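Colleagues,

Please find the record for the two-part complex below.
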Amino acid sequence: MITWESFLGSFDTGSGIWNPLVWVLSIIFILLIVYSIRRYGKTGYKEKTDQTQSFLSGNPEYEKEQMHIKASNMYWGFTESLKFVYKILDRMHTGNVSDYVLWFVIVLGCIFVLIGVI
Amino acid sequence: MNFFESLLTHSPALIVAVPLLGAFLTPLISKINDKIRNAFVVFIVGLTGVLISMLSYDVLMNNKMHNYVFGGDSALIMPASGESFAVRIIFAVDGLNAFMIIIGAILAFVGVIYSWHFMKEHTGLDKYYTLVLLMIAGMLGMMLTGDMFNFFVFLEITSISSCALIAFYTNKGKSVLAGFKYIVISTIGALFILFAIALLYGQYNALNMAVLANSIQFNTFTDKIALVLLISGLGMKAGIVPMHMWLPDSYGQAPSSVTLILIGTTQAGLYALFRMVFTVFGRHITSPIELTIAGNNILAGTNLNSIVGIILVVLAILTMIIGVMMALKESDFKRMIAFAAVAEIGYMVLAIGAAFFTLSPSEITIEGVQVTFYSFSQAGQMAIKGGLFHIINDALDIGLLFLVAGAIYYVTKETSLNKLGGLARNMKFTTIFFIIGLLAVSGMPPMNGFASKLLIYESIYLINPILAIVAILCSILLLATFVKVLHSVFLGPKIPKFDEVKEVPASMLIGMGLIAIVIIFFGLFPNLILENIVQPAADALMNYSAYIGGSLL
């Protein structure tokens, strides 16, 4: 039978406990504090003036569509610095079904050596 | 026996029979009306879901095993010679089976509801729904059967129907190619599994999993070959790196509603891998026993657990790292989620594989005979629970993300992340569902993914801290991957060509909403799920003798 204790109880991870309900209540409390601080903020800015325009170090602002960063441009630094890894990964993922089978055979062989021979 | 009890008794067979029968009736009902056909399919899957709920509740709450033997009361027959044989097909449902069919039921039900509008504009829907029901029947059969050959039959049913559904967009060359790749890989994997089954049958004259678990001596080369073939074949079905390459192709090209159910079939492969390792070969891998009489080893345990542990952990680490790195680089929405799905499989395999290293001996002496039993430590048990909990969480989280990708494709006809942007303005509900999926799959609190990943991290840390660090790093990269999607698809300025884009129809929102609700519920009440669903599954997995005893009584 399902009990209230199992519904609301914390679960033991072996070295700690986790109770999301406590976490949610904490987040709500923090959000209330954030909201109360936000209420002290200035509301007297003038809309549709330079006050609300983004400042791009004096450069002209592009059309909004052109300013959207495309997915391929994101994490460029990460992929560039790990280029050598991606080269290997790209060589693995050929899209050729014969290669898929080859990888299967390689894994089969390795497992065979580990279990069947050793 | 009243009607309810009778229904419960026959439920293991009905869970497969209802969608199977529904599959063959669907083309006939299609002749009447499309709406009636759709309602019929939802009814069939809903009815299957009710049967699964009844059976799972009985198995999980009452902690008992359900056996359904086709053609008799017992799987064993006793001819005049006096020796018993297990020849009948049996569906043996313990905590692990019940756990898996719950996943199957959720994915199948949401999949058909989502299909209602998602597939509306396409022709050939009588065939589509027939194949979907066949795939569901095959998937549930794989999760329920206690017979090796029967498992192969269901595996083939699932593979053939999945192949046809992956290639459903026949006007697209890539879909047809993905379907072709899937059937080649599936068939090769299935043939190796069949070969392993044949070897075991030749050796032990049995196909029943419980009988095999009781009989396998693991002292011949044939036994070793069978185990190697099963691990490799089922590992490929489960999408473990480097045998995962079919998965992004298939998940990426199939209709999103199909991809959702495909996740279930992939996890059925993972379930079978665990069943073989823990149950069929359990006596030699997870629970070896040594007998020592007067200082002489009469029956020595094997060190197979550490070898299988090494294999699973190495494959899991590769799966996580390669999956997440490919996902981070990918710019096609569905392929990206597919690579993330690969990475997620790594977490489950890592947790289960690492648990093998925690097997420790405990000795007792009975009348001069020293008996050494091996059992999992507390960290190992936690890792197994975490791994199993993550199976259901992964199915829900990745499933929701695929449905969101389907919704985006439905309104924009676009899956390239580079061509999308600013859709949060027009698709508020879909954006919220995506954010829920993003947080869940990255293991952010308080979503369900956090609970299972926390269990995995903490238990793995106790086994080997480096493994835990790699797992956490991969999770951070997963978060980065989906933040990229959030930015490039939903945020940013409006793209003029998507000005007219509207929110998706109600059935698709209901499908996504249902999964989102389950994700939040699992996230807020993880203890409930752990105690009532995951714990019985973990107990069933770790105790192979209970499966043997329960199946053969």
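Residues 378-412 of chain B form the longest helix (35 residues).

Comments are welcome before we finalize the supplementary table.
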